Sequence to fold (584 residues):
Amino acid sequence: MSKCKYPILFLIVFVLGINNIFAQTASAVVTESLSLDDQRKFDYYFYNAMNSKSIEQYGATYDYLQYCMKIDSTNASVLFELGNFFNSIQNKDEAYTYYKKAANYDPDNFYYNMALAASYAERQEYKDAAAIYQKLINLNTSKIELYMYLSEVYRLDGDLNNSIQALNDLERTMGMNEKITIQKFKLYSALNDKKKAYAEVQKYIDKYPQEIRYYILLGNLYLQDGKTKEAYVALTKAKSIDPEDPYLITSMANYYQTIDDQPKAEAELRAALFSAKTDIDTKIGILSQYIGILQQNKQDLAPANALLDSLMIEFPQEAKFNLLYGNLLMVQDKKKEANFQYRVYAESDPTNPVGWEQLLQSTDVDSIDALIDVCKSAIVYLPEEPLFYFYLSVGEYQKKEFKQALQTLNRGIGFAENNPRLLSEFYGQKGSIYYELKQQDSAFIEFDKSLKYNPQNLGVLNNYSYYLSLTHKDLDRAENMSSITIKAEPTNPTYLDTYGWILFMQGAYTTAKIYLENAVKYSEEKEKEISAEVLEHYGDVLYMTDDKENAVIYWQKAKEKGSESKTLDKKIETKTFIAPNPIK
Fold:
């Protein structure tokens, strides 16, 4: 049997619940031209759909909405809810289709139009999005968020003047606002109109001459613009108002850093960080801002390391510094050192999942035992956090402890019920385990469940399609699923190999060769170790495209990689392709 394909150890699980961003205001759904019997059925299914949604049973929600669609496919409420469902699982094309239909059937509905405008923006169809937002503003002049959305889509479309105009209209509606001012400053700067840019900030100083934050803001903007003399004047004025303001201290340190006066920069920071008057959270804020400035300016992070070392000596009981230091070390690609800091933080506050999650991120991918140890420790203190059960099962799976991995998933899956994307990962992992246990039918059932919660789960689509190809059945379905993965990641060697192999099994040898050749190519370009499977598959397609000499070379390379193929030795010996038997 060929080796199974499974997600890498540290795949990122994006925790995304299905949130209905635009709540409906209608209390009932009214359909037209339905018989009394159909209306009753429709109301029953829609009520159950909304009830399932309220208790976060999203699979049932989808099923009930499909029943509604069979009765009335033009109902805007149903179309909108289906759009929300697909949007939540990142199937943006389907979401857009349903939102557009909903807005077409109910063109004045605020929520449907908001969803459609957001979809237009995601598709980079900014003019269409702007038209909708402008229409909604005309109907809802007091909804301030509409002006912000309109300004943003104009900006994304490169129409900076109209972007500014939308913000000006917003200011007339709600009055002066700092966030609006900062955005207008950026837009004027992008238009190279510095005079108007700085005038936006100056109007706050003129109105509130004793408010320190506006001088700090002006100073920071001057620094970003390379105007160090003007920055110093603004920051000096701020210092005359409150010399101990923590944000002023950070800005002054940034100023000295900018003019290459490192001793004064550190002196400014130390004055605040080691002051008894500055609380821990403020110290953390100052340091975080300082680190951000160093990163933004692409400066050496060593001064931040030194400050954190000193702070942890001065305040050994404050584990928040360990968390911050761990984050800083991760940025510097010092995972081993970061791991130590995260462990200190996790053990100091063991019921906080952040420390354990960071420990997972910093654990060496080759250290399966360390991964398992972190997950088991986290579960002791956080027995209802599903993420740790999932990663524990991944570690057990890697150690080929399949039955134990399955038990772990079954223990944790109930805690993931409100998270469809994580549920998809659980079921996908169960599918891979059942396959390893030679329970093929159960594996495919779990894969189907996984894709129900997230039809775009690339790892599951790849595994499922590959396993189907090994059975020599449902090749059209396998090809369809695999094609989704290569559209999403066209240079992923594993996905290319799967798709190429399915095409090979369909007899499309010339096309298969293109994809399998790319699987080899991108493995080499990404300095990723080429698997024995990829090499053997490439040898197979070379043979079937009349390149028998090179086919044998690649079969031999596959053997050197430790292939477990039952036909490989015979192929090399006879220099002839031997089709694998279907797995049952």
